Amino acid sequence: MPTETAKPISRSGVMTAERNRPQSLLFAASLLIVAMALLSFPSLFFEQLALWFRITDQALLALGIVGSLLRSKALRFVGWIGIAMFFVYAVFGSLPSVDHPALDPNGAQRFESWIWRPLLAIAFYVMLVVSFRKLAVKTQPQ
User: With a threshold of 0.85, does the pTM exceed it?
Assistant: First the structure.
């Protein structure tokens, strides 16, 4: 007589990863909408990148969330490329250039006037990666 293998089931009888998927998808979608909105306001960054870069990144992020919704590995990979491009723009665009007023007359950066921007960008990026990664949890067949 064959024995059944134990499946990780929550108290409600539904697998935890599958039950938490709508919340993870909603959280990731809201983070991606915020990221796309941030890309629409280049004046928030010290170093502004070209319009084509920002639009391409927004499209890649949108395709990534659609890929998570449809469970398409190819579209999710496109989303990861969009997240990587967002990291480059958000973090490195938040660092002031040499001629920016965040530098004192001696050329030293005024720590308190710029450090919060890349720190917030990195924190947002980490949340984006974690939420996008949570959507990749594979469900086991029943």
Answer: no
